[in-house]
Amino acid sequence: MARELISRSSNKEVYRDGHLAIKVFCEGFPKSEVLNEALITSRIEEMGGILIPATLAVSVEGDGRWAIKKEFIYGKTLQQLIDENPDKVDEYLDQMADLQISIHEKKCPLLAKMKDKMSRQISELTELDKATRYDLQTRLDSTPKHDKLCHGDFQPNNIIVAEDGSGMYILDWVHATQGNAGSDVARTYQLLCLQSEELADKYVSIYCQKTGTDRRYIEQWLPIVASAQLTKHRPEEAELLRKCLEEIFEYE
């Protein structure tokens, strides 16, 4: 069976090859980042309690590009189901919130600490002036120290609903850290906003209702998370992230 291209981005391509999903990175992609992704994913897999495609191998393609081979999960992404069944969006968001809450109930102490990672990203953000970086760093330092498992890129495209009914599998753990759940939900809000602000608001409302979280707590994380994400220089997010930063003093 010939490889079937599933998706493509600026730094990788994902193929299906029989029962395998193969992520092939672009030429020159750092070996350290490939190995780190495989390590993080393996730690989540070994922790247990979360459905995740098994990592099977790290290899080098014939053209010299690095690749990670994983178990292929048969099913549809939650995003596909939302697009196909808009009348069920509330049901899907409810399931998504339950899934994110189940992640936050776990701990994986070998992962990097979220606050350390964000602190480094803020310090490297040359797009912002020194005073703004100081304000962001002060805000980050004042947040509670938690060690909850956080996905870092939790969105409908990274959730596969298995067609055999075995459950919902969560993909792409490369940004996973241990830290504060509020930050993780703030990032999910931003990702959903790229589709629809109404959808994002509805999701956060569902999450807050289920967990008893004050919505303002999530909102306080938005400028911090936005500043960290700006370091990735993704054009499709730039306007949204800068909007979050413009509101930096709104939730004092």
Can you walk through the features of this model?
By secondary structure, this protein is an alpha+beta fold. It has helices spanning 31-47, 78-84, 89-104, 114-123, 130-142, 181-193, 197-211, 215-230, 235-246, and strands at 4-8, 12-17, 20-25, 55-60, 66-71, 75-77, 148-150, 159-162, 168-170, 177-179. It has a five-stranded antiparallel beta sheet, with helices on one face. Strands 6-8-9 form a three-stranded antiparallel beta sheet. A two-stranded antiparallel sheet has the order 7-10. β1 (4-8) and β2 (12-17) form a beta hairpin. The termini are far apart. The relative contact order is 0.12. The mean pLDDT is 93.
Q: Which series of helices and strands comes N to C?
A: EEEHEEEHHHHEEEEHHHH
Helix/strand class:
alpha+beta
Instruction: Work out the number of β strands.
Output: 10
Summed up, the helix count is: 9
Poorly predicted residue ranges:
none
Largest sheet: 5 strands, antiparallel
How much of the sequence lies in strands comes to: 15-25%
Taken from the alpha-carbon principal axes, the silhouette is globular
Summed over residues and divided by their number, the pLDDT gives a mean of 93
From the alpha carbons, calculate the radius of gyration and give it in angstroms: 18 Å
Give the distance, in angstroms, between the N- and C-terminal Cα atoms.
Answer: 57 Å
The helix content is: 40-55%
Major β-sheet strand ordering: 1-2-3-5-4
